[in-house]
Structure formats: structure tokens, C-alpha cells
Amino acid sequence: MKKLLIEIRKQTLTLVVAALGFVAALVWKDAITAWLSVLFENATGATELTLAAIIVTVVVVIVTVALTKVLGEKEVKK
After folding, report:
1. 35, 42, 51, 68 — which has fewest CB within 10 A?
2. Model confidence at 12: pLDDT above 80
3. pLDDT in tens, 45-62
4. pTM
């Protein structure tokens, strides 16, 4: 029974952290949209919005790779 309660606490913590991450992502979405609206003021068509999505995707991939290198766990060589 004690293991079950520990597992429930761990899973609850994981869900709460994920929910907080989701809220942060929504705020970042609004911030990024505000910045992109300056660059793509007339972006009402599918082509312009697709171009903006591609640019954001490339930037996100670059930032993700950089953060993974800086904050990721070091590989253990066998």
C-alpha cells in the first residue's frame, strides 16, 4: 500500500509539472505571436502563416539543440 501511495504522489507531481509547463507554453505562444505579428503584419493567407510556422520551427529546433547540449546529461562512455 505504501508503494502505491508513493507512486500516486510521483504521478501527481508529474502531472502538475506538465500542466504548469503547458500554461507556460500558452503564454510563450502569445508572446511569440505578438513578436511575429510585427514581422508579418499582413500574414492573413496560408502561405504567409506557413512561412512564419517554418521560421519558428527552425528557431525552436536550434534552441532545443543548444539547450540540450548545455543542460543535457553527459553521456557515459562504456
Report:
1. 42
2. yes
3. 777 777 777 888 888 889
4. 0.52
Based on its alpha-carbon atoms, the radius of gyration of the chain, rounded to whole angstroms, reads 19
Provide the residue ranges of all domains of the chain, joining segments of one domain with +: 2-69
| 63 neighbors 57 (Cβ within 8 angstroms) | no
Q: CA 42 to CA 61: how far, in whole Å?
A: 26
CA atoms within 13 A of residue 48's CA, in its CB half-sphere: 10
Burial pattern 1-18, b for ≥16 Cβ within 10 A else e, equals: eeeeeeeeeeeeeeeeee
Do 52 and 36 meet the contact criterion of CB atoms below 8 Å apart? Answer: yes
Report d(CA 77, CA 67) in Å as an integer.
Answer: 21
